[in-house]
Each structure stands twice: as structure tokens, then as C-alpha cells.
Q: What sequence folds into this?
């Protein structure tokens, strides 16, 4: 159990262990240590299909979260490596930092954080910054 990063794109362009360590800390901080959390790294094509099938939006996105079905299974976060690569380049960040941001963002959603109202966005951004060290628009 715990956090695990899985690649559907072949070899990851960054060490999965770095992301897993941060996600384990998030789980512990939210009293969910031991809960299963899987981050699946996919290409834009796959995340676009998920986005279309589950949210009715036919375009790629950065990440999508799916809650688990028990207290022992927090859920899954799918993140697009293609979107992360584009955004990292635009923001001047290393790819692994952008991917970490997506994994953290998706995990926070599974823990009940939201990003629709201004106070929710502020709470989400503060938590993202705490776990990634990144400040700004997330």
C-alpha cells in the first residue's frame, strides 16, 4: 500500500521515488498513511480519452483523479506527461517539478480539496506550495 507511480509511457523521464516520497508525506499529514494511491503517467491521447469519457470534455488536461472505493484505497491520479512537458517549458521548470505538481494536485483532490471557489483555490494553492515548494498559479 502507500503511494506508487506507474508509467504507461515506458521509462519515466524522472525518478518515481521522488514523487512517491512527497505523496507519502501528504498521506501521513492527512492521517491516510497506508492508503493505496496510484499515480499513472500517460500521454495526452490517453488523458484526453479519460477527460472525454468521464467529464465530457474532449481535450487533454494536466491530471484527473478517480477516488478509490474504500478507506484503504484513496484512488488513482492520471497525469499527462505531454502536458507536463509543455507546461514545464512554458513555466521554466524542470519536468519532474511539473509532474510532481500534477501528482500533488490530484492527490489533494482525492483528500477533499477543491479548486472552484476563491477560498478553495487559495487553500489548494497553499497546500500545493507546501508540498512542492512551488509558489504561484500552480
A:
Amino acid at each position: 500500500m502507500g503511494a506508487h507511480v506507474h508509467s504507461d509511457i515506458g521509462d519515466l523521464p524522472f525518478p518515481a521515488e521522488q514523487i512517491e516520497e512527497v505523496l507519502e508525506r501528504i498521506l501521513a499529514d492527512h492521517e491516510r498513511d497506508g492508503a493505496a494511491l496510484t499515480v499513472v503517467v500517460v500521454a495526452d491521447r490517453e488523458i484526453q480519452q479519460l477527460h472525454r469519457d468521464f467529464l465530457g470534455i474532449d481535450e487533454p488536461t494536466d491530471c484527473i483523479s478517480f477516488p478509490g472505493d474504500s478507506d484503504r484505497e484513496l484512488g488513482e491520479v492520471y497525469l499527462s506527461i505531454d502536458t507536463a512537458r509543455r507546461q514545464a517549458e512554458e513555466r521554466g521548470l524542470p519536468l519532474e517539478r511539473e509532474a510532481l505538481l500534477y501528482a500533488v494536485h490530484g492527490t489533494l483532490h482525492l483528500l477533499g480539496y477543491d479548486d472552484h471557489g476563491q477560498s478553495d483555490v487559495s487553500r489548494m494553492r497553499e497546500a500545493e506550495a507546501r508540498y512542492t515548494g512551488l509558489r504561484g498559479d500552480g
